[in-house]
Structure formats: C-alpha cells, structure tokens
C-alpha cells in the first residue's frame, strides 16, 4: 500500500492509492445500500420502479456485479507479466475487451482502465494512454482517458504541451470540489425560460447581440481561429469560439450571422453588458443554490409558511407524498415555487418528482389487484 496522497484545495483531503488485492478468496465486499435507503427520492420512487422493471432486487443485482468484478480481478492477476504492454493486451483479451458485445461495457472499461493505471503507475501518464490508444478494437479513447486521469492524479508534473482551456478547467475543478465539501459556490447562469426562443437550426445558435458574437443559451464569445467553409452556395462554416467564461467550443454557424434574441442569452451576462464589460474568462456567476436545500430568503415565523417560502424541494415533495398526493397541497407548493426567481426550474423539478412518486406507487397497487383477481378465479 502506498502512503496517502494529499490534494490541497480549500480543504485537505487524503486519498490513498492501493495495490490490487492478492487474496481474492478472502475479499468480502459488503454491499452498502445506505446511499439509496436513506435518500427519500431514491427509496420512495426510484428503487421500487427499478426493481419492478428488473424483476429482481437491487441486492441481488449488485451481488452479481460484485461477483463478476471479483472474477475479472482474478483474471487480471493471472494475466500480468513483466512486460506491461503485453500484460495489458492479455488482460483486455481475457476480459473480452476486444469483442463487440463487451467493448464499451461500463464495468469492464472501468476495471481495464484501473488495471492499465496500475501497470503504468510509475510511468508518465502519456505512456499508458498511448498503450490504450494503440490496442485497436478495444474501447481505446475511454480507457486512455480514464487511465490518464488516474495516473495524472498521483504525478507531480503537468502534462506535456499546452492544455486547452486550462484556466477554465482548473476553475471548474475547484468549484466542483467546493460543492463536494458542502460549500456555496458559483453556478452557470441560464436564460429566462419565459423569454427563450429556440434556434430553428444548429447554425442559428450562433448570432450577434449588441454587435458582438453570441451563442444561444451560453454566452458572448470571440473568434478564436480561422474559418472553415463547407461546399455549396449556402454552406455553413465551422470555427473555434472562446466563450466569455473561458470555455473554447467548435461551432457550426452561418456566414452572415443572424441576430440573437435577448431572451436567448443568460440573464447575468446581459446585465453585465449594460454595466461593465469584463475580459473573457472573468465573468462572474451567481452563487449555486442546492435545489434540495432551504433558501435563506423570505424568513417567516410560521413553520408551514417557512416550508413554502424556502423552496426546499426535499421538504415540499415529502409533504406532498405524505398527504397522499393531496391536490390542494401540491397546488400550493407549485404556486409558492413559481414566485421564486428560479421558479420555473424548481416547479418543473417538483412536478417531475411528484409524478414519478405517484407512478411508482400506482404500479404495485395495480399488480396487487391483478394478483387478487387471479387468486379468486
């Protein structure tokens, strides 16, 4: 076992990399379903629906996957030799990674990528990635990407060459890390759904607003490379654009850009354009609010009113389910959610959860009635 590695960010988290176990007979992987059973939404409507569709229990299915993984790990152990490239080829072949029926399988791909990472743990990540990329008829790109990420997490040197959107990627990684630590951080700003006008074609997604290039639903942008023209009189062209929050995208657009409706741009950048223009990659984003956590706005001493004003999807859906889907309760919830700044998004989320919960309960009841009718016959 290696010594723990430390990632330094807003908080320090110790991550330990462990060599594959050698005694598979003594490996007892206990199933922990707490993440499902303790989650109201997963246990209330997702789990019953899933088990009904699978005609099995989740415990049974997870046990089958666990046993399959342990069997694959034993095959990996038997396929390892002194030559890492040869070992990798043997592992992929033995696990069926070259067969169309298995290629791209989520479980197989993850295990193969982990094995490749272990084989090249002391090498530069690019060496493992090239090995994966050169084994034709396997899931080359996915395995190479996963292995590169795993090994890259334990090396001290940055990748060779320039990384596209490095600043943006680092900023997003730190944002996701903050979210994982339960911190409030910035989020993406979306257009106002009441004013959204969907582009007729993909080409119409790129247009102009206030004399500048803009991409519907995303942001203002600047040209970041030459234009590549298609064939034909009215052919589209392709071009790299740099969005105002730092991401680079390759777009298909018209030669003469149409005007982008104001409602097709995120609300915050529009406000910024009217005040102070910030350089690309420096656009501030609104704080990210969890859909399932209470909001600090609209305080009230009335407990029931606090539930409504909080916009807490978790609390409201639980109340609606416990009321046996009382139409009056659900209506009050929807009206309260619609009065919030993010009312459309929250109302849609709430309605979707309630609908799924109702459907998941209706199926077992219908099956019970069918069983009773059959037993009477």
Describe this structure in words.
- The protein is globular, with a radius of gyration of 26 Å.
- The termini are far apart.
- The strands form 2 sheets. Strands 3, 4, 5, 6, 7 and 8 form a 6-stranded antiparallel β-sheet that branches. Strands 1-2 form a two-stranded antiparallel ribbon.
- It has 3 domains: 5-152, no CATH class; 202-274, no CATH class; 303-376.
- With 377 residues, it is α+β, with helices and mostly antiparallel strands.
- The protein has helices at residues 34-37, 40-54, 58-79, 84-94, 106-119, 125-134, 140-152, 166-180, 267-274, 303-310, 313-322, 327-338, 343-376, and strands at 5-8, 12-15, 206-209, 212-215, 219-223, 228-229, 237-243, 248-253.
């Amino acid at each position: 076992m290696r010594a723990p590695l430390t990632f330094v960010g807003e908080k320090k988290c110790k991550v330990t990399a462990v060599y594959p176990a050698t005694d598979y007979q003594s490996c007892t992987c206990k199933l922990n379903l707490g993440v499902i059973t303790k989650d109201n939404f997963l246990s209330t409507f997702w789990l019953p629906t899933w088990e009904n569709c699978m005609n099995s229990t989740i415990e049974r299915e997870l046990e089958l996957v666990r046993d399959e993984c342990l069997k694959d790990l034993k095959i990996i152990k038997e396929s390892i030799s002194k030559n890492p490239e040869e070992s990798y080829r043997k592992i992929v072949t033995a696990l069926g990674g070259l067969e169309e029926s298995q290629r791209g399988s989520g479980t197989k791909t993850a295990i193969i990528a982990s094995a490749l990472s272990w084989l090249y743990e002391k090498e530069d990540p690019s060496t493992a990635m090239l090995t994966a990329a050169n084994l034709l008829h396997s899931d080359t790109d996915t395995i190479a990407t996963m292995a590169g990420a795993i090994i890259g997490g334990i090396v001290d040197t940055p990748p060779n060459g320039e990384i596209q959107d490095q600043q943006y990627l680092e900023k997003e990684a730190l944002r996701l890390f903050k979210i994982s630590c339960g911190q409030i951080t910035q989020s993406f700003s979306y257009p106002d759904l009441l004013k959204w006008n969907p582009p007729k074609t993909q080409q119409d997604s790129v247009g102009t607003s206030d004399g500048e290039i803009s991409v519907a639903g995303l942001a203002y942008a600047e040209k970041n490379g030459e234009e590549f023209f298609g064939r034909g009189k009215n052919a589209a062209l392709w071009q790299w654009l740099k969005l105002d929050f730092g991401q680079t995208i390759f777009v298909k657009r018209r030669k003469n850009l149409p005007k982008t409706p104001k409602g097709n741009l995120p609300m915050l950048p529009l406000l910024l354009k009217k005040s102070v223009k910030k350089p690309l990659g420096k656009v501030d984003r609104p704080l990210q609010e969890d859909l399932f956590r209470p909001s600090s706005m609209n305080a009230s001493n009335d407990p029931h009113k606090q539930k409504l004003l909080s916009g807490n999807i978790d609390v409201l859906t639980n109340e609606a389910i416990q009321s046996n889907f009382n139409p009056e309760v659900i209506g009050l919830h929807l009206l309260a959610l619609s009065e919030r700044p993010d009312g459309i998004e929250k109302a849609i989320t709430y309605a979707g959860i309630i609908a799924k919960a109702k459907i998941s309960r209706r199926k077992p009841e219908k099956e019970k009635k069918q069983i009773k009718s059959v037993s009477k016959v």
